[in-house]
Design goal:
Elements lengths: L2 H21 L1 H15 L4 E7 L5 E7 L12 H4 L2 H9 L7 H6 L3 E3 L25 E3 L1 H4 L7 H14 L2 H17 L18
Parallel strand pairs: 3-4
Antiparallel strand pairs: 1-2
């Protein structure tokens, strides 16, 4: 994608991301109240994540898990019914649209993973940070959490090399269909994707 394409992509992110963010505010208010009543504070989950060129920002989305009340409690045990619903519908991701408007993220790009993974990437895998991370991406429409980590990284780098506005529109449209169908939400037998443990 050339500089003109990048400017068009950024304008698209601001206009569409901003419009969806504003339109979703009533839904976000209801979700925040439901989380507060069922899990208490905080309502939002905050965690540092690497963005473009590995620059770290604080990712914000709705909280879906109870605080651990004992050691060795699994994520599946902490995930609440409300949290499972928010994840399966991707409603927990609505606050991340603020990152799109700010410029930390794009609507489409490789998903931002954990900061501690940065030194573990191969040089090829690290190319996923050549672009802004996305709310959704090529890996997500190719299987979401049901896709292997190696498969996700291959799709991420493929996106970096082939990205266009037309591809972004296709990924967004497919994401909406996948979310409505709740397709590829998690790995079989898992509440969430397995932690990545590269060899």
């Amino acid at each position: 994608m050339d500089k003109r394409g990048e400017r068009t992509k950024r304008a698209f992110d601001v206009i569409v991301g901003g419009a969806v963010l504003v339109a979703s505010l009533p839904v976000q208010a209801v979700v925040a109240l439901a989380i507060r009543r069922s899990m208490g504070s905080p309502v939002l989950f905050r965690q540092p994540r690497p963005g473009k060129d590995g620059v770290v920002f604080e990712l914000v989305k709705f909280r879906t898990m109870r605080h651990p009340d004992a050691e060795h409690v699994t994520d599946a045990e902490r995930l609440t019914p409300l949290g499972q619903f928010l994840r399966s519908t991707s409603i927990d991701e609505l606050p991340t649209l603020w990152h799109v408007v700010k410029g930390d993220m794009s609507l489409v790009g490789p998903r931002p993973l954990l900061v501690e993974y940065l030194p573990l990437y191969t040089p090829e895998q690290a190319r996923r940070h050549e672009v802004r991370p996305g709310v959704t991406g090529l890996a997500q429409i190719s299987g979401r959490n049901a896709l292997s980590w190696d498969g996700k990284f291959r799709r991420d780098v493929e996106y970096v090399d082939t990205r266009t506005l037309a591809l972004d529109l296709k990924i967004i449209a497919t994401t909406v269909l996948r979310v409505l169908g709740r397709d590829g939400i998690s790995q079989q037998g898992e509440a969430t994707a397995n932690p990545w443990a590269p060899e």
